[in-house]
């Protein structure tokens, strides 16, 4: 891989009695899209704020472009918060103009189907277009590192495909991209993933690496509801899927011991979501 | 018993929120309505429970006291404890002796240990499970939950879906909305909404099988064919005829089917 743009080494952050981030090490290199996956409260936003230099870690170290975060490193960052950081009562052009002036650059040109939107109020745009404008604003000073908080959350299928195209284009042009999401299907768009659970990184790697060796048992009981009860009482989490129950990260023997020898069981690879459940439980 | 819509259109403040939507919510099964923000999920929920009146079409639903409804991001009283939340619902339904049912729901939700904690102090996952338990408590004929899993981690989401499966197991017709396409697998029937219209409906499997044409994987953006990016590769869709040279055929997943349908719809407009 090429230059490491951002790196955290075992950083932690505590808020009163809540250890929000617990010894997390991640890195983002030029040209790659790294996904930070976890639920609300897993520590994604705290981690990002430390990485951006907006929050100081209690322990550990953050390096941006080979140095500690400063005002100067911020110029090389593009950040799109979940709220998109746009002023709702300004037009698209006014928003882009404002952002460009803050960074002392020329305002970006609006292209494609965004071209006709310059005079539209941001608040009048549908969510998908608003997210794409937020993205143009975050990219306007050609940052080396892009940090995107839930960039496609709530967006329809086509707008989502288009947003991902733009994100990959930015990475292909050499930027490093860090994306947070709690959508597992989005995670599969990333080159590398960091799974965050209760403030800790429980897995790091490509989708293939994370899924390697992760097995889910599929049970087809005659009475799924009764089987679900038995499994739950025994502390085995089962996912009802059609007429089957899927049990990530458990052994055939343990399922047999609860559901008996008659029930039909088969073994298959885990989905990313199932792997996450197994890893979060173990972590 | 089946509840739902036949050709329902709802106009709100001059705009069409949902248009000609058909929906079947069957007793003993979980139906998922999946869509992005603004796709019409909340309008579907509110219309089904009777809070909105359709402009046209027919709505089938039981009487109001046989409906359990949890609106989006609400449904629990934060200043009441878990038990107080449940008993409030019980009393509102006139179930003075509903304590066995409360106990049962505390057990299945795993909230027994948190029974005396304020709802406002629960984690997001626990609070959502409480909300589902409150909707289940009076054993309604129809339970409607608007985005019960939004923002929850995969583990909590799975737990909420297990609760919904349990509610269906009690004979209730369950409708849950979600923005997570991969949750389609958890439901027995799925309706995918886009811009207020049904993009696809059926079981997850039948939706995947409804894909027409060929789907391929290529390394770079192909010319002249609908294509969308997946990680480092492109999916390319050939509705008729062969795929571009060098494309490897792959089976479409739900995301592909939905993206392709959205493409086709945009071109038809």
Topology:
The complex is a heterodimer of chains A (283) and B (269).
Chain A: E1 4-15, E2 18-29, E3 33-37, H1 44-51, E4 59-64, H2 71-74, E5 77-80, H3 92-103, H4 127-139, E6 145-149, H5 157-172, E7 176-181, H6 184-187, E8 192-197, E9 200-205, H7 207-211, E10 215-220, H8 224-233, E11 239-241, E12 244-248, H9 252-259, E13 264-269, H10 272-282
Parallel strand pairs in A: 3-7, 3-8, 5-6, 6-7
Antiparallel strand pairs in A: 1-2, 1-4, 8-9, 10-12, 10-13, 11-12
Chain B: E1 2-12, E2 15-26, E3 30-34, H1 41-49, E4 56-60, E5 67-70, H2 82-92, H3 99-109, H4 124-136, E6 142-145, H5 154-169, E7 173-178, E8 189-194, E9 197-202, H6 204-209, E10 214-218, E11 227-230, E12 233-238, E13 248-249, H7 254-268
Parallel strand pairs in B: 3-7, 3-8, 5-6, 6-7
Antiparallel strand pairs in B: 1-2, 1-4, 8-9, 10-12, 10-13, 11-12
Supply the key terms.
heterodimer; A: 283 residues; alpha/beta; six-stranded mixed β-sheet; four-stranded antiparallel β-sheet; B: 269 residues; 28% strand
What would you say this structure looks like, in words?
The complex is a heterodimer of chains A (283) and B (269). By secondary structure, chain A is of the alpha/beta class. In chain A, 32% of the residues lie in helices and 29% in strands. Chain A contains ten helices and 13 strands. Chain A has helices spanning 44-51, 71-74, 92-103, 127-139, 157-172, 184-187, 207-211, 224-233, 252-259, 272-282; strands at residues 4-15, 18-29, 33-37, 59-64, 77-80, 145-149, 176-181, 192-197, 200-205, 215-220, 239-241, 244-248, 264-269. A six-stranded mixed beta sheet of chain A has the order 5-6-7-3-8-9, with helices on both faces. A four-stranded antiparallel beta sheet of chain A has the order 11-12-10-13. In chain A, strand 8 (192-197) and strand 9 form a beta hairpin. In chain A, helix 3 (92-103) packs parallel to helix 4 (127-139) and helix 4 (127-139) runs parallel beside helix 5. The longest helix of chain A has 16 residues, at 157-172. In chain A, 47% of the residues are buried. Chain B has 269 residues and is of the alpha/beta class. Helix content of chain B is 30%, strand content 28%. Chain B contains seven helices and 13 strands. The model of chain B has no long low-confidence stretch (mean pLDDT 89). Chains A and B meet through helix 5, helix 8, strand 11 and helix 10 of A and helix 5, strand 11 and helix 7 of B.
């Amino acid at each position: 891989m090429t230059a490491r743009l951002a790196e955290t080494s075992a950083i932690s952050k505590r808020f009163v009695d809540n250890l929000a981030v617990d010894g997390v090490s991640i890195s983002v290199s030029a040209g790659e899209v790294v996904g930070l996956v976890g639920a609300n409260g897993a520590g994604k936003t705290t981690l990002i704020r430390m990485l951006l230099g907006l929050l100081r870690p209690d322990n550990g170290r953050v390096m941006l472009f080979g140095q500690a975060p400063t005002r100067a490193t911020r110029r090389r960052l593009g950040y799109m918060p979940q709220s998109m950081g746009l002023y709702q009562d300004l037009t698209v052009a006014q928003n882009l103009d404002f952002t460009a002036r803050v960074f002392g650059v020329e305002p970006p040109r609006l292209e494609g189907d965004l071209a006709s939107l310059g005079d539209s109020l941001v608040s009048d745009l549908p969510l998908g277009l608003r997210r794409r404008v937020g993205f143009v604003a975050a990219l306007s000073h050609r940052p080396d590192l892009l940090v995107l908080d839930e960039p496609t959350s709530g967006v329809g299928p086509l707008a989502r495909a288009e947003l991902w195209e733009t994100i990959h284009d930015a990475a292909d042009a050499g930027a490093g991209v860090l994306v947070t999401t709690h959508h597992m299907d989005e995670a599969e768009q990333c080159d590398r993933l960091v799974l965050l659970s209760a403030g800790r990184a429980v897995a790091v790697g490509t989708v293939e690496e994370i899924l390697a060796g992760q097995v889910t048992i599929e049970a087809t009981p005659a009475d799924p509801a009764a089987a679900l009860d038995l499994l739950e009482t025994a502390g085995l989490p089962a996912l009802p899927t059609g007429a089957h129950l899927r049990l990530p990260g458990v052994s055939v023997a343990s399922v047999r011991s609860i559901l008996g020898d008659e029930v039909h069981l088969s073994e298959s690879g885990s989905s990313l979501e199932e792997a996450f459940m197994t890893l979060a439980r173990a972590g | 018993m089946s509840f739902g819509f036949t050709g329902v259109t709802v106009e709100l403040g001059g705009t069409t929120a949902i248009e000609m939507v058909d929906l079947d919510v069957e007793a003993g099964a979980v139906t998922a309505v999946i869509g992005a923000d603004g796709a019409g999920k909340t309008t579907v929920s509110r219309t089904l429970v009777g809070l909105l009146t359709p402009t046209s079409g027919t709505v089938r639903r039981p009487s109001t006291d046989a409906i359990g409804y949890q609106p989006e991001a609400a449904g629990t009283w934060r200043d009441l404890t878990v038990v107080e939340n449940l008993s409030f619902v019980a009393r509102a339904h006139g179930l003075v002796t509903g304590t066995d049912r409360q106990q049962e729901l505390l057990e299945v939700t795993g909230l027994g240990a948190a029974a005396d904690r304020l709802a406002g102090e629960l984690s997001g996952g626990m609070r959502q499970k409480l909300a589902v338990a409150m909707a289940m408590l009076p054993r309604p004929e129809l339970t409607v939950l608007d985005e019960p899993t939004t923002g929850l981690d995969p583990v909590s989401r799975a737990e909420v879906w297990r609760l919904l499966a349990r509610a269906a197991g009690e004979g209730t017709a369950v409708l849950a909305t979600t923005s997570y396409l991969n949750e389609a697998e958890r439901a027995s029937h799925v309706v995918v909404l886009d811009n207020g219209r049904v993009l696809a409906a059926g079981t997850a499997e039948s939706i995947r099988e409804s894909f027409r044409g060929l789907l391929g994987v290529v390394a770079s953006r192909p010319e002249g064919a609908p294509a969308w990016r997946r990680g480092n590769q492109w999916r390319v869709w050939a509705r008729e005829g062969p795929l571009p040279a060098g494309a490897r055929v792959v089976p479409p997943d739900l995301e592909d089917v939905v993206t392709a349908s959205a493409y086709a719809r945009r071109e038809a407009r």
